[in-house]
Amino acid sequence: MRLELQPRPGEHLADLLFAAGVEFPCGGESNCGGCRVRVVAGHVPATSQMREVISEEDLAAGWRLACTAESTGPVTVEIEQWTASILTDDQSVALEPRNGFGAVVDLGTTTLVVQLVDLATGEVLGVETALNPQARYGADVMSRIQYDLQHPGVLTDLIRRELGAMLRRLTQEDVLEEILLVGNTAMHHLFCGLSVEPLASVPFESPTLGAVSFKAADLDWPGPATFLPNLGGFVGSDLLAGIVATGLDESPAPVALFDIGTNGEIVMGSRAGIVCASTAAGPAFEGGRISKGMRAGSGAIDSVHPVNGAFECRVIGGVDPRGICGSGLVDAAAAARELDIVQPNGRVTTPGREVLLAPGVALSQGDLRELQLAKGAMAAGLKMLAHPKPERLYLAGAFGNYVRQASATSIGLLPGNCPVEPVGNSALRGARMLLLSPTARLQRLNRLLERTAHVELAADPAFQDLFAESMLLAPFTLP
Amino acid sequence: MADLQKLYDAVLNGDQKAAIAVTEQALAEGITPLDLITNYMVPAMDEVGRRFECEDYFVPELLLSARAMKGSLTLIRPLLTASGIEPAGRVAIGTVKGDLHDIGKNLVASMLEGGGFEVIDLGADVPPEKFIDAIQNKGVRVVALSALLTVTMPSMRKTIDALKEAGVRDQVKVMVGGAPVTQQFAEEIGADGYSDNANAAVALARKLVAEGAPA
Question: What is the pTM of this model?
Answer without folding.
Answer: 0.78
